[in-house]
Amino acid sequence: MTDQLAFQDGDVLLLVDIQKDFCPGGALPVENGHLILPDANAWLAQAQQQNIPVYASRDWHPQGHNSFVEEGGDWPPHCIQDSDGARFHPQLRLPPGTVVVTKGVRFDQDQTSVFDQTGLAQHLKDRGIRRLIVGGLALDVCVLDSIMDAVAAGFEVVLITEATLPVDSDKVGHVLERLQSAKVVFTDKDVLAELGSRSDVRDEAPDICVKAPEWAEHQRLDDDDMPCDDGRSGRI
User: Fold this and answer.
1) What pLDDT, on a 0 to 100 scale, did the predictor assign at position 2?
2) Catalytic residue among 11, 17, 59, 140
3) What is the DSSP track for 161-207?
C-alpha cells in the first residue's frame, strides 16, 4: 500500500451494500460477489487497527418497493426489511462501532447512493472527514452512484478495486471513464480495467473465518434504539 493509499487522519472506510442478497444465493446476486470479502476484511482490519471510522451501507426496502419489477421497477425484490437477504454477509467482519447507513427506505423512489437523502455528507463534514475509501456492491450501481455523490459533495475518494464487482461487466468501461473524470483514485487501476473481461475467477466461497465480533446497535427510522442481528449471532 503506497503512502497515497494508506489510511490518514480525516479518512473513513465506506463499504457499500455487502449484503446476502447481493452475493451468490441471494435474490439479486452479483456474480462472484462473495470474492470481495477477503479484501474488504483486510481493509476493515487495517481501519480498526488505525482507529479509522467504518461506515457500512445497506439497502433496506419496504415490501412492494417501487424499484421492484412487480411495481414497475428494474430489479427483483431484494433486501426487504428484516429479511435474511437484507443482512450483511455473515463473513463480513464489521468491527464494533460500525455506523450503518440505511437507504432505499422511501416508498416513492429508489436510493442507490448512500448520500441520497441520508444526511451522510453533512454528518461526515461535521466530523472533519475529507476522504472516503470505498468498496462494495455493486460497482456499476450503488458504488458508482455513491462515489459520484461523494465527489460532488467535495470529498476525495479512493476506490478499492479489489473489493468491488459489477452487476453488468459490460458497463465497466463506462464506469471507469466516469470515475477517472471525477479524479477518483484506484488502489489497482488494472483490476478495474480488467473486470469486464475476467474469465478465470474462482466460483467457490473464500476460505476465511466466519467468526466476527459482536454487532453494534444502529439507528432505524423512528426506532433508534433497536439492535440489529445481522446474522453473525448464529440466528441465521
Assistant:
1) 57
2) 17
3) EEEEE-S-GGGHHHHHHHHHHTT-EES-HHHHHHGGG------SPP-
Decide: 113 and 145 in contact? Cβ < 8 Å: yes
Does the annotation count 209 as an active-site position? no
- Asked if residue 86 lies in contact with residue 60, where contact means CB atoms within 8 angstroms, the answer is yes
Q: What is the pLDDT of residues 171-221, one digit of tens each?
A: 999 999 999 999 999 999 788 777 656 534 434 444 433 333 333 333 333
* Residue with the three cell numbers 442478497: 21
Query: Domains (ranges, CATH) in the chain?
Result: 11-197 (3.40.50.850)
Q: What is the pLDDT of residues 49-94, one digit of tens each?
A: 999 999 999 999 999 999 999 988 889 999 999 999 999 999 999 9
Active site residue 103: yes
Residue environment code for 192-206, b if the CB has 16+ CB neighbours within 10 A, otherwise e: beebbeeeeeeeeee
In this prediction the pTM is: 0.82
Residue 17 designated active-site: yes
Instruction: Tell me which of 142, 145, 228, 230 is the catalytic residue.
Output: 142
Pick the catalytic residue from 11, 23, 59, 103: 103
